Amino acid sequence: MHNCEIICVGTELLLGDILNTNVRFLSKELAAMGIAVLHQSVIGDNSERLANELRAALSRSDIVITSGGLGPTPDDLTKEVCCEVMGFELAQDDSVLEDIKSFFNKKGICMAGSNNKQAFVPVGGTVFRNANGTAPGAAMEKDGKCLVLLPGPPRELEPMFIKQVKPFLKKYSSGVIISHTVRTMGIGESAMAELVGDLLDNQNPTVAPYAKDGEALLRITAAAVDEESANELCLPMLDEIKSRLGSYVYGVDADSIQQRVVELLSQKGKKIALAESCTGGYIAKRITDIPGSSAVFGCGFVTYSIEAKNKIIGVCAETLEKYGAVSEQTAGEMARGAREAGNADIGIGVTGIAGPESDSSNLPAGLIYIALADKDRTFVDKLITGRSNDREYNRYVASSYALNMARLYLEGFLGGLYG
Amino acid sequence: MHNCEIICVGTELLLGDILNTNVRFLSKELAAMGIAVLHQSVIGDNSERLANELRAALSRSDIVITSGGLGPTPDDLTKEVCCEVMGFELAQDDSVLEDIKSFFNKKGICMAGSNNKQAFVPVGGTVFRNANGTAPGAAMEKDGKCLVLLPGPPRELEPMFIKQVKPFLKKYSSGVIISHTVRTMGIGESAMAELVGDLLDNQNPTVAPYAKDGEALLRITAAAVDEESANELCLPMLDEIKSRLGSYVYGVDADSIQQRVVELLSQKGKKIALAESCTGGYIAKRITDIPGSSAVFGCGFVTYSIEAKNKIIGVCAETLEKYGAVSEQTAGEMARGAREAGNADIGIGVTGIAGPESDSSNLPAGLIYIALADKDRTFVDKLITGRSNDREYNRYVASSYALNMARLYLEGFLGGLYG
Description:
By secondary structure, chain A is an alpha/beta fold. Helix content of chain A is 39%, strand content 25%.
């Protein structure tokens, strides 16, 4: 398997002014082609440091890809430094010069003299013409090493890579790498890792746990000559993992828990309504993130005040008085109230202390009650997030938990696991 | 000036699975402290490659910061490799072990055995305890070099850096760089740049326009020996910019438009209620992002369906029939209905086509009506986002626009500018 590294050139990256989306794009594309990226780095617009980095990269990797530093100004020096390190000459390319001139013509402006230098390309190299800007890309091959130069702006780099560089690099590709992600809810990363502990040593496919936004995920990655064979390697592993993790799994390669909930509601022809207190509209926002959610979601209530809980969705004044706004009982009545006032099949009620501080109730921040009601039953769960001072986290996790409760209900697990 | 480099550890970064936001965060913070970042790199979970990168980094830089690879699993090896390269021993730290145990206790779970290794810290180093996770950070200083280890999850890394690492690195800082951001709403980046065009050439402070999430911002940056002198350089420039941009400016260094709206409502002792259709709870979510928003926000209605608009907040059936759910008239009735049903001083109503496709109305996606009602008046505005297929953008921009309308109303501009 050939390996590769990526060098992004730009002082704006070192200053943290912009996010490095190029490196992510290139890494993802290369991984899918079966080219292993072992190293990514960022260097400022400095010829000595760039030359050193290039030499180090070429000594340990077969392919080196740079992005950025191909512009018309004097501090754009990637092309010059790369040619020096690889031992290639630069010469003007007439068709590239025409590209640049016509790029400006289309905008009704004359080409500035400084753009002239962008028409210089490595003699004996491969040129990637730029349909979306003025800097051409290039590749130089020598002594079993390949150096590829790409422009910095993503809207130039991405189409150039897909249309020209990918076919060019095909000869270095060793089959494909396919990844699938098993997404779970309701189980921590370490507890999940224990359930599948012995699988984490597997070689092809590999199985790796990671945590993201309060969810535990498992990534299954297989390398093979083609997509079909790679998927054949993954499938038995996916089945094994799904059977071990059972109802914790909400999807494989699924976009999000809200996507899954909207899908399940559509499949079952059911409507959901919401009464949110501490999540303050977050669940409604996440459900309506999904195009087409209007078929399963008609309305939600953000009942933030006690008065709203009572007047708008009919939580009893006595319940609020006796048990408090943050209680199992209030959550249950909110779920039933949302269901009725919203004329839906299922109602969800969420009430808790989002933080960062407690309120007059003196209950701890991060304590949240989540309820689901259908025509006959009400399920209530208590969540303690463990991050009392993190309002955003508490609200996000509470909304995820509520969405997962809807998922479990729709899949027939609620009552078994939670009842 | 001391120089620094950042090494992020994680195979998920090399695979392009996630964007590297840590490196941007750290680079920005270090630049502001007057510490030059000359190199950023990413290495997989591989001890040999990490050790090589650390040695190269320590040979050319004064400070090296790593992120990631401090987790409980066997492939988390940053701490072990760093200690080996720097010549430090690892030993268990009892207070860190207590931190980890209590982190799990708060969640009502027992600590897994594998988390034990996270309680090991470099002997003779500095420990940064982790308030938001289980992996402590650490720093080792030797022979004029400083190596700092930080956990990978941004929720853990960011507060640890701000609260503990920044004060620790103060001794390496040379002077300060201070930035202030003027935030505007309702004006595009180029139109804003024209109003302040001559200021963009200024040297210290510099003035730079940029666009973010549909807002136009101006960053004013000054370098000086200390914070006070840097601020003295900034202040006259800030005043000049504010006077030129007038009511477009909603804040300087303000966190967000929702923060400003909650502040203004609190100051004026007013309550707001919402009726959201296409934004689906996004405005409620953003208002309730702000701690203490319960004092000014009692309830919101997500009236996604036509039935909900009519039954829950009393939009007339004739209005819905005659003008449609997405219309000036419906938006106005939604604002008045939210105000009344929510028992508030101000009501906001938002209805439109979020996209990515139109609905049966055949109105274009990205067309949104936004209304504000008080006791006597109703203001309605029409927004065309220009990005018909970007649902997230349309929803975000519509919610920002609604929040800005509330801001302008509360600052006394509505009726003047919009009426």
